[in-house]
Structure formats: C-alpha cells, structure tokens
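Hi all, posting the design record for the shared folder.

TITLE: backbone redesign
STEP: 1 of 1
STRUCTURE INPUT:
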C-alpha cells in the first residue's frame, strides 16, 4: 500500500455535489440557488466598476511585487478599519492584520486563542456556515454547539442562545455572525445584540465576530452595529472580516483580522503571536485584491462609487426578498431576514424534487436569494409554493 492510501474517506461537501448537478443539467434556464456568490439581475457575478478602475491603476502604478511582510498591505488594513470598526477605529487597543479572506482571519483567530488558552471551548450556534466547525477544530479547540435557529418555525431560538452563552465559563469563546447570518439570514435585532453583548462581557467570554457580508444587509453602519456593541462592552474581542463579498473579489482572498485586548501593550504582544501564526500558515497574504481594495478606499470618488455599488447589491437582495415574501404568508419571514441566504422550511424530499424542475438548492433548504436572475424569480416562487402545498 502507498502511504497516502491510509487516508480515511471523507463525506463530500454536499454543496459541491449540487454544483456538479447544476453543471450536468442542460436546461439553459436552470436556477442555481445553491452557490454562495452574489449574482446580478442577469445572473452574473460582476467585478465592481470601482474595483476594476482600482485594478487598472494598480497595474499602471505598481513597481514591484517584492515581499510585503506578514502584515500584508498595512494601508489596506488601515483603510478598512473605520468601515468595519466605526467609532472604535481609533482605539489603539485594537490591532489589525491583512488576511487571506475571512477564512484566513478565522483560522488565525482560533489558532491565536488556542495558543493563549488551549482549554477554551467555542460556543457555536447551529446551523452555521459549514466551514466554522472545521476551522475551529483545526485550531484544536473544543466546540460546544447550541441551537440558534428554528428552521421550520422560521425564528431565532434566542432563549436557547442566551442560556448557552450563560452556561459559558470565563475564557470560553462565543462565535457570533456580525450580520447576514449564513445559512439562515436570521440576524439579531438591536435589543438582542445588546443582551448578547452584555452576557458575553459579564460571563467573561471572548467574542469572535465573523463579519463577512458588511453592507449587504441593512447598510454598512447597521451591519456592524452589533459588533460595535460587543466592542463597547468587551475588553477583549476578535473580528474576522471578509471583503470578498462586498468588493466582489472572492478568488483574490481579501480579509482582515482585528484583535482587541485590555491595554495597548497586550495588543502589541498578541499581534506578535498573530504574525508568527500567519507566518507558519501562509507567510503573507496575497496582495492584489487587498491593494485594489485599498486604492478604492483611499480615493473618495472611488469609495463613493463602491458604496453605491454595494447599495445596489443590497437593494437587489432586499427586493427579491420582498417579492418572495409577498407571494405567500408562509414565506413572509424571508423579508425579515438579511443577506444572501435564507432557509426554506422544506423537507429534503421536497428539495430533491425541485431539482426535477432544474431548481438547485442545498439539502437543508438554504438558498441564495440572489442566485436567480430577475427573469427566474417568478418561476422560483411558484415552484417553492407548489413544493410546500
Ligand atoms: N464567514 C462566513 C459566515 C461566510 O459565509 C464566509 C464565506 N462564505 C466566510 C466567513 C469566509 O469568507 P472568505 O471567502 O473571505 O474566506
């Protein structure tokens, strides 16, 4: 036998299986609401015009691609900082580093926590983005799951969330979705965020806020409001930020990690560990996407154009949500949720039967609200209602 033959089989990612089904379907009007990228009314995943202009400028002006160092593009991190952190942007107790996307930021965050406190448990509400558990498990930290969302009742199980957070011990970690919860679309309201922020601080939990869709829910400030409350009340906190959706740079892997501690010196020390871990993992983050995003953020005209482009994405998401919600009272919940995903209360059988009509979503009923083109919305709604009846 060969050495690598001993690798155990893995259960394949069901979303990859759906992508294969979509690709194999010859129907030109097939509806792919499985995949997790933004699509416009014509079904394309465009590169924002502001970013395209910045890339052109980058190509013209960049003189070298020599190594940048583990921090990546420090001007990028400085420029995204006020967008993400708002009134906390000037807090010297918050350190930042560029990362390969939100995944890189999360991986760094949990490895950092594991280096400080290997016995920490990570409290995760389910369902969650299916890469959360593997990333946390990869750090060696223990996962404690609690039920976050009642899919068939289409509501957040807030009492259970509160109870789970209250059961946390000092030094445990609370992983929180900043906005546009993936896969449920169910975001905490202001009051719930206040309560969560308070419990996390009182219990001495370390909050890790995953902010991967800022601007795509209610607006930039609104989408970070929960994070800002957490930063108000917790002396220590970590933010895993992704620019991949709001800049449309998915494959370029653009993100940042922000680490807050109680005093500036402790933050400086923590950042030396962050850099050491980054060095082991990827040495330094990929430059291109972050450099282009930095050009956008530093140029007032490009930035204004970008904010408008994100607003257009957000408006498309929310207008399709409104159309779906208006079609049937059982779908009304879709308009109260945010971001690209919601979960339909369909059985796996019903989801599979939709595939006979060339409509593809995850077995869980999670669908990408903007996976369909404008011309496909009515057919999607009719098929979903028929499946529910
Ligand atoms: N967190 C959540 C909740 C996500 O949905 C995603 C992307 N699907 C990420 C983090 C990671 O994003 P990135 O592609 O930037 O690594």
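Okay, here is what came back for every position:
SEQUENCE:
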């Amino acid at each position: 036998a060969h050495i690598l033959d001993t690798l155990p089989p893995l259960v394949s990612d069901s979303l990859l299986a759906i992508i294969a089904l979509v690709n194999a379907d010859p129907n030109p009007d097939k509806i792919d609401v499985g995949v997790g990228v933004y699509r416009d009314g014509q079904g394309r995943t465009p590169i924002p015009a502001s970013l395209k202009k910045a890339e052109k400028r980058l190509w013209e002006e960049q003189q070298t691609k020599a190594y940048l160092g583990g921090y990546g593009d420090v001007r990028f991190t400085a420029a995204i900082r006020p967008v993400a952190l708002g009134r906390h942007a000037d807090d010297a107790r918050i350190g930042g580093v560029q990362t390969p996307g939100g995944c890189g930021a999360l991986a760094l965050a949990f490895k950092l926590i594991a280096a400080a406190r290997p016995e920490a448990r990570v409290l995760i509400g389910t369902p969650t983005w299916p890469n959360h558990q593997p990333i946390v498990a990869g750090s060696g930290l223990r996962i404690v799951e609690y039920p976050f969302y009642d899919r068939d009742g289409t509501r957040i199980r807030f009492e259970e969330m509160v109870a789970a957070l209250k059961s946390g011990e000092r030094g445990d970690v609370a992983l929180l979705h900043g906005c546009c919860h993936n896969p449920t679309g169910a975001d905490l309201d202001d009051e719930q965020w206040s309560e969560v922020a308070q419990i996390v601080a009182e219990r001495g939990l370390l909050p890790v806020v995953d902010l991967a869709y800022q601007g795509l829910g209610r607006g930039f400030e609104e989408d970070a409001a929960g994070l800002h409350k957490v930063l108000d009340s917790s002396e220590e906190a970590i933010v895993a930020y992704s620019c991949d959706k709001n800049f449309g740079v998915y494959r370029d892997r653009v993100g940042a990690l922000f680490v807050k501690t109680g005093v500036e010196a402790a933050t400086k020390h923590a950042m030396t560990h962050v850099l050491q871990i980054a060095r082991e993992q990827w040495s330094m983050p990929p430059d291109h996407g972050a450099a282009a995003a930095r050009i956008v953020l530093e140029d007032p005209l490009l930035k204004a154009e970008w904010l408008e482009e994100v607003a257009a994405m957000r408006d498309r998401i929310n207008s399709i949500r409104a159309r779906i919600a208006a079609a049937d009272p059982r779908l009304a919940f879709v308009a109260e949720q945010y971001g690209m995903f919601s979960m339909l209360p369909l059985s796996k059988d019903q989801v599979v039967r939709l595939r006979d009509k060339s409509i593809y979503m995850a077995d869980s009923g999670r669908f990408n609200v903007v996976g369909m083109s404008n011309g496909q919305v009515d057919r999607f709604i009719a098929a979903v209602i028929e499946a529910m009846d």
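COMMENT: The chain is about 45% helix and 15% strand.
Let me know if anyone wants the other runs.
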